[in-house]
Q: What sequence folds into this?
């Protein structure tokens, strides 16, 4: 601050002196008269101006010579770099000027200009640790990927800039879609700087995409230790990864390890529905139905879900409809006004052939929140109470035009999934699937694709299919239901398989 003030004062003084000298010279008709050691010199106006210019140049040269002499003096006194610093000072000035101009061009989005200034700065400064990063980023902005990658590789060779180089190449590979190479680079970058949050996020996402669940859990734990993630978020995502591990173990046929992994996933996050379902089946396989009942009840209390009801039914698969209805009271009393609870009770009562109670259980759900499942249940109730075919077909026709109800939807891209997945199959985001109702535009259109299998049953014979109001209904009831004029394409049947789960709770 003080030095800047001094420079301003000197500049003003020089300007004032030049102004005074010029005015004096103009007012003097005879020019200037200078006396040196008793000798008098007279200069005309033009000669005076030339003399002043020569004097200024002489002073400037004198200062340069003095600066050189000072550098020589320091060199003679042991400073080996004094002379090189003296001659490089001007180059450095030009280099830093080009560097600053390049940074400004990069910030303003002028890639070509930034690249030109960066190369000029590199020429003058000869400090690659300063200029290479600017060159690489400018080359990227200008679209010169080859130049950018070459420069990033130069950064990798320097220990102080290795992380920047590895990260730069990683981002390039991600942009190119080469996720395999990007994963290896992300692992290396994260090892170099484990506290870098962005690199950790990229590595976690890539590991999840490649189904490297063990590696992803290790990355997640490192992020927690570095304070980059809240503990509750870490617990939830660790549960998702543990659940994914359990599924892989199941695929490998290691049932004991799968049960343990599923139970661990449920312990980490009791509200994670797929983990609760898998853990419940693990307890059932172990012959511990009380533990399965306990965790399913806990998960249902957080969010009622048809998969939880299906797992709860699997605890006692051979019980009668009346016994099942009584046992399910453990769940249905928790959220009696929830749509899932109402539909579950309606299914259970249909299976018990108590159609008036099924109607009371369903309530006004078909008016307030109509879905394919609730409307189909109403068709089954109407048939069970002896309604005409016209009424039943009217309900079935309506079931074709209403929403499918809650589904697994990605919070990031709104993509609808048939089954829960740890990674969105559309945008590849990790742990973004939620059980919720899709947008209003997502309506089941006529054609059978969106219909629940509880309506159409099996379509393997590609014939008119008897309408089954619910998998909870008894065989005698379903046999009496009118055949619906609906032909199901075999290719579509696979897409509809998952949808049986909401109504399969009481069928096991």
A:
């Amino acid at each position: 601050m003080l030095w800047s003030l001094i420079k301003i004062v000197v500049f003003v003084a020089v300007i004032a002196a030049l102004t005074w000298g010029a005015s004096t010279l103009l007012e003097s008709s005879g020019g200037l008269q200078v006396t040196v050691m008793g000798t008098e010199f007279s200069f005309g106006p033009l000669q005076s101006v030339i003399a002043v210019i020569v004097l200024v140049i002489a002073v400037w040269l004198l200062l340069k010579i003095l600066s050189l002499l000072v550098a020589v003096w320091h060199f003679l006194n042991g400073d080996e770099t004094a002379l090189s610093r003296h001659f490089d000072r001007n180059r450095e000035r030009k280099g830093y000027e080009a560097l600053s101009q390049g940074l400004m061009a990069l910030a303003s989005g002028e890639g070509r200009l930034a690249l030109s200034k960066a190369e000029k700065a590199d020429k003058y400064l000869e400090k690659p640790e300063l200029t290479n990063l600017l060159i690489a980023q400018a080359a990227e902005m200008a679209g010169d990927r080859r130049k950018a990658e070459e420069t990033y590789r130069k950064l990798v060779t320097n220990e102080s800039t290795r992380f920047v180089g590895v990260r730069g190449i990683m981002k390039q590979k991600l942009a190119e879609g080469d996720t395999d190479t990007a994963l290896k680079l992300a692992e290396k970058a994260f090892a170099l700087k484990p506290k870098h949050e962005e690199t950790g996020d990229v590595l976690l996402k890539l590991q999840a995409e490649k189904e490297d669940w063990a590696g992803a859990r290790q990355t997640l734990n490192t992020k927690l230790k570095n304070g980059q993630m809240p503990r509750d978020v870490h617990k939830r995502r660790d549960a998702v990864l543990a659940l994914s591990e359990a599924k892989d173990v199941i695929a490998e046929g290691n049932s004991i390890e799968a049960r343990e992994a599923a139970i661990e996933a449920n312990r980490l996050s009791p509200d994670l529905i797929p983990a609760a379902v898998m853990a419940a089946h693990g307890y059932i396989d172990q012959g511990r139905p009380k533990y399965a009942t306990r965790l399913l009840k806990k998960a249902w209390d957080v969010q009622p879900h048809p998969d939880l009801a299906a797992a709860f039914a699997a605890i006692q698969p051979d019980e009668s409809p009346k016994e099942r209805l009584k046992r399910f009271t453990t769940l249905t009393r928790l959220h009696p006004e929830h749509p899932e609870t109402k539909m579950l009770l309606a299914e259970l009562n249909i299976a018990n052939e108590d159609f008036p109670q099924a109607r009371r259980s369903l309530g006004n759900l078909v008016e307030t929140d109509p879905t394919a499942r609730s409307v189909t249940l109403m068709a089954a109730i109407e048939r069970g109470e002896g309604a005409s075919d016209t009424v039943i077909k009217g309900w079935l026709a309506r079931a074709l035009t209403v929403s499918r109800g809650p589904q697994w939807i990605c919070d990031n891209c709104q993509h609808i999934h048939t089954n829960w997945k740890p990674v969105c199959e559309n945008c590849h985001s990790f742990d973004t699937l939620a059980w919720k109702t899709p947008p209003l535009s997502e309506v089941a259109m006529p054609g059978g694709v969106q219909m629940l299998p509880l309506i159409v049953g099996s379509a393997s014979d590609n014939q008119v299919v008897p309408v089954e109001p619910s998998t909870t209904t008894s065989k005698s009831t379903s046999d009496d239901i009118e055949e619906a004029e609906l032909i199901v394409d075999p290719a579509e049947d696979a897409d509809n398989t998952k949808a049986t789960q909401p109504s399969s709770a009481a069928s096991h």
Notes: Residues 129 and 160 are 8 Å apart (CA to CA). Strands lie at 32-36, 39-43, 407-410, 416-417, 433-436. The radius of gyration is 40 Å.
